[in-house]
Amino acid sequence: MHTVLQEIELTFRYPVHFTAGVFDLSNPLLRDVIAASGDLPARIVFVVDRGVVRAHRGLTSVIQRYCSQYPETMMLAGRVLVVPGGEKAKNHPGHVKDVQRAINNGGLCRHSYVAAVGGGAVLDVAGYAAATAHRGIRLIRIPTTVLAQDDSGVGVKNSVNAFGKKNYIGTFAPPFAVINDSQFLLTLSDRDWRSGLSEAVKAALIKDASFFADLERHASRLSGRDLTAMEETVRRCATLHCAHIASSGDPFELGSSRPLDFGHWAAHKLEQLTNFRLRHGEAVAIGIALDSTYSLLSGSLPEADWWRIIRLLQELGLAVYAPELRLHLHAPEHPRCVLRGLTEFREHLGGRLTIMLLRAIGKPYEEHEIDAGTMIRSIDILKQFSRRPELPEYPVDREKEHIHAKSERVAG
Amino acid sequence: MHTVLQEIELTFRYPVHFTAGVFDLSNPLLRDVIAASGDLPARIVFVVDRGVVRAHRGLTSVIQRYCSQYPETMMLAGRVLVVPGGEKAKNHPGHVKDVQRAINNGGLCRHSYVAAVGGGAVLDVAGYAAATAHRGIRLIRIPTTVLAQDDSGVGVKNSVNAFGKKNYIGTFAPPFAVINDSQFLLTLSDRDWRSGLSEAVKAALIKDASFFADLERHASRLSGRDLTAMEETVRRCATLHCAHIASSGDPFELGSSRPLDFGHWAAHKLEQLTNFRLRHGEAVAIGIALDSTYSLLSGSLPEADWWRIIRLLQELGLAVYAPELRLHLHAPEHPRCVLRGLTEFREHLGGRLTIMLLRAIGKPYEEHEIDAGTMIRSIDILKQFSRRPELPEYPVDREKEHIHAKSERVAG
């Protein structure tokens, strides 16, 4: 017997830029990001969210014009690839293959670039394709939604769905650079504008009580689509997210703790239970409300803090309840019971079940045992908030088949 | 404009164990590897090379028995999955999917295990599937060939082929542990026994002149299938390989240099040109001979050193020439010309062309310009060695169609 103990150290560095009008001919940021790395002119493939192209007529021409302005720095390798956005994009392996094919046809190497422009799903699909082609093409993320700008787009993960499970296949792969362009937020639907704010509430709850207080102070400006307030919120949330990844000691999640995912075990399950009728951010708001209420009922979170959380979510226009929370509650391991999300969350991450709960706003702690009865009572409490006029109307008939058919129709 | 500069540090550690009889009931190594990490009993999926199962009748039962001996440590999650071995396994995405499906059906989490038993291709397929399911299941590699034990199996890469290109899709993903079991080497064909030695010659040439001298001293024992000599060679080569990865400063190959791939630009291309009639190790031997000869003709490598290299390869039973080296030499960018391999090598790695050449045995240097005429003269010189009786007979008719049809038949 003989053993070699191998130890490998790696350092990844990437900038997260905040700008406005990234493709304006007068904005040199994207050019500068590429020019800084040498090997010029660099080949670049653009992958753009179809929803963004629809909201910004002529965007593909604008991108082409931007690239052709800097022939010494970048060379557009092939046509701008437009892919469908939203969660559906992650369900079909063909989209990953399309991006990989564009990378191959464009003759890209590891020092070339894939620039992904879109919401979190498109960034995920393009990111997974880029991370695996040649074992890693440089990825420039240009997130276009609040959710992608303040959360997923600045992180180190990508994924697609498989075997009916969200994010089942993916890698940890830091991007080469992230460019958050606030101008893209102006064309978001109200739903997409609001739903990304739930990740800001989450980051504030587990990291920064003063950020939470500022969210309370600016809640009406935020829900009223004040861009300056939103820019500030996105910047603070993204910065907290980056700082957590860098300082957690476990950026590739080899251990069992996952504090950035407060409220997410129920959120992931709710997205699936609603056939993705709920946006990720909408599901996260409900997940935050649920785990905050569980924290209250377990005696760890003061009632005043709990009220502030529920009130802020509502002031931001985020629902705290969905009827799918009540499906099959008598059978916690039923595939369509939200409590099954605890098992799936543990299984996805590995090791012991570890759920983040709250002692106070800004003060999280880890819990390894969740009591089903207390969780069901938490759901009962949130149900009282299901009738506020600003919340979307959900079907009251909770027969499984009915909801299933309805949500499929909405999702389709 | 505002910028957050993100910096992420990671450390990966894994042991490379050398043992004999890993599945003997009296050998606790595999149990100990798993037991050391907690979260017990851990689920484990075995992926085994069909060629290994054929050479070791009853292996799947032996594995089942081994696992059932340690119920407190490991739990076999599903049947032992047998997949085809060899390069063909990497051409069909279905094999990756099969492993991912077994991981999903087995309810594996990130703290569970995939144990891959086989040659480099099976380790690559299972490794890619494990690296992407849940963004990374722990991988235990149990390489069964000389090549996998002394080279690819101890490294940090996995891959499959796509778009007609070898290793086009993959990730950098350090294993959880590697177990090199010398008993598997006893059942290798002579071809597989010998061909893995070319990576030992490579490692010696670029890292360790005294290892090269020892290979010369033991050449007849090695080609005569002396297991003790082979164990020593595998251990030294694997250790050099590990040390290089740990000390290179660029384990995930973000830069342009790739010293471990001496002789590999031509090797990868020759595998493709012969439709994988040549084993990777056989192609590497020719690639080493080619770049050594180029080093000689460029005036950097002394003739005495060059002779020692050619002689050692031949004494180890490794051919230094294949007729496919001469295809389309008048058209260096022809897809079936070996010189096109320079472009593909640069493209796969990215950045500037960087080829390792030799000043002496153990003394490499990097070259960025390769002269096609000198390379063609190098091929002419090697052709003189094509007629030694111990080398396989290749077709003398060099018409493209003929060779293509013949090699397809052999490979098919």
What's the topology here?
The structure is a homodimer of 412-residue chains.
Chain A: E1 2-19, H1 29-35, E2 42-49, H2 50-55, H3 59-69, E3 74-76, E4 81-83, H4 93-105, E5 113-118, H5 120-132, E6 138-143, H6 146-150, E7 157-162, E8 165-172, E9 177-181, H7 190-195, H8 197-207, H9 209-217, H10 219-223, H11 227-247, H12 264-273, H13 280-297, H14 303-315, H15 340-349, E10 355-360, E11 363-367, H16 372-383, H17 400-411
Parallel strand pairs in A: 1-9, 2-3, 2-4, 2-5, 5-6, 6-9
Antiparallel strand pairs in A: 7-8, 10-11
Helix pairs in contact in A: 4-5, 8-9, 8-11, 8-13, 12-13, 12-15, 13-14, 13-16
Structural account:
- Chain A is of the alpha/beta class and 412 residues long.
- Helix content of chain A is 44%, strand content 18%.
- The first copy, chain A, contains 17 helices and eleven strands.
- In chain A, the strands form three sheets. In chain A, strands 1, 2, 3, 4, 5, 6 and 9 form a seven-stranded parallel sheet that branches.
- In chain A, a hairpin with a 2-residue loop joins strand 7 and strand 8.
- In chain A, helix 13 packs across helix 16.
- The longest helix of chain A has 21 residues.
- Chain A is globular and about 65 Å long.
- The relative contact order of chain A is 0.09.
- Strand 1 of chain A pairs antiparallel with strand 1 of chain B, so a sheet runs across the interface.
